[in-house]
Each structure stands twice: as structure tokens, then as C-alpha cells.
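Hello,

Our lab assistant flagged a job as stuck in the queue for most of the afternoon. It eventually completed. Since we weren't sure the result was trustworthy after the delay, we are filing this so someone can double-check. Below is the sequence as submitted and the structure that was eventually returned. Let us know if re-running is recommended.
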Amino acid sequence: MPNSQTSPPAKGDHGLLRQKIVEQILADVFRGGLTAGRHLVTQELAERFDVSHTPIREALIALAGIGIIDLLPNRGAVVRRVTSREVREVMQVRKALECEAVRLACGRIGLAELDRLAVDLARLAEAKPPYPPRFIEQCRSVDSRLHDLIANSCGNRFLANELNRLKILFRAFRDVSYTQHKARNDFRQLAAETREHLAIVAALQENDRHTARRAMLEHLQGGVKYWARALPDPEENLPVEKNGHRVRRSSIKRNGAIRTGATK
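-- returned structure --
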């Protein structure tokens, strides 16, 4: 298991306990702490999180349901390889679901709730460098509030359930990309997302289905490349032919020149 210390989730709420375990394992996978092919042993996870086997098994079933691990006969849980291509495919699904959800949510959300979101988003949009210490946490909180509100207000129970099932995966991708922005001290993408959120809220306030759907589409399209960049792509390390030599993709510059020696 990864060496990083993990605070045990709160034990008061069974669903919250399972969710926190899922979130932590997802973070480990996307940050490279759990690599493809790694076996996840129930006993080791139970000791790590200081819980019984039951929430661990439930968390593994949830992770298998969103395609992060495989549950194999006689082998247990095995981490799948997640590539930037799969991130883009996940985003294609998200666009289809959430663009329809926001269209349906128009006229179903109270103006007072939308006004509170607009005020919070405007405050984030006005922030200037150096950004306050809690800027990323505040962006994450408002992002979750808005997308949850849309999903739960769309009036389609099956659509809302599917978005709620997948949101833990969406947010794991988001949080990994946010962490990279913080490490680079580059908050331009977060500022751009705040403006996109404002456009979505404004369309909902106007009960404009067409504009709301378009604003959501532009928001999600803008996030695809940042989410895809957040994951290391294993295919980059596969050998390819270049000028008669076998080299790794990651060793080739954009202009096609070989940056390092050939591989055998």
C-alpha cells in the first residue's frame, strides 16, 4: 500500500465512510501511488483505514462499478490502467449527461439558491494574485454545490442517480488537476472555471435552457485537456520506432528529434 499516512474516515455514517475510502483509493490511483496491476488486499485496506471488511468490500464494488478496478475470480481486486484517453471518454459521457441535466433543471431551481451561488462565484472571480490560502478549497466547494444542485434538480431520477454515481470519479479527476495547479502556483484554470460557472448560473437564473446547455458544454470542454494532463499516460513509455531505433515516446521532442539514447 502507499506509504502516505491516511486519517481514518469518520465512523458515524456508513455511506460517508465508504465514500471516503473510495475517494482516497481513487486519489492514490490517479497520483500514481497505486499502479496498474496492483492487487488490493481487503485485510491491508481494513488495517489502513481502521475499519471492518464490510465498508472495504463495498468500496471495492463501487470502484469496480466506475471502471477503476477489476474484480477477478480467485484474484480479488486489481487496479486497472487509467489513461488520458479514458479520461476524455469519461468526459464525453459527462457532457452527454450534464448538458441534458442542466437543460432539464432550468425553472426547477429556486432563485434564492442560485443568487447565493452567484454571489459566492463572483467573490471567487474577483480574487487576484496572490490568491488566498483557501482559494482551491473554496473553488472545489462551489463547484460541487453547483453540479450537485443541477443533478438533483433535473427532474429525471435515473439521470440524477447516474450523475451521483459517477460524480466521485469526476471529482477525483478534478482534485488531481487542482493539486497540480496548486503545486505550480497556477490558478488561471480555476479562475476560468469560476467564470464558466457564473455563465451557467446566469442562464439558470434566466430560465434559458439553450444558453444553460451551451454554457455547460463550454465548461466541460474546457476541462477535458486539464483532466487528461493530470494523469500519466502509460502509453508514453512504450517503445516506438524512430530513425531505425526503438525509443520511448516520452523521449521524442515535439519536432521529432530523439532526446535520449535508443532502447534495446
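-- support follow-up --
The delay was a queue issue, not a problem with the job. The result is valid. The chain has three domains: 14-79, 84-229, 235-264. Residues 236-242, 247-264 have pLDDT under 50 and may be disordered.
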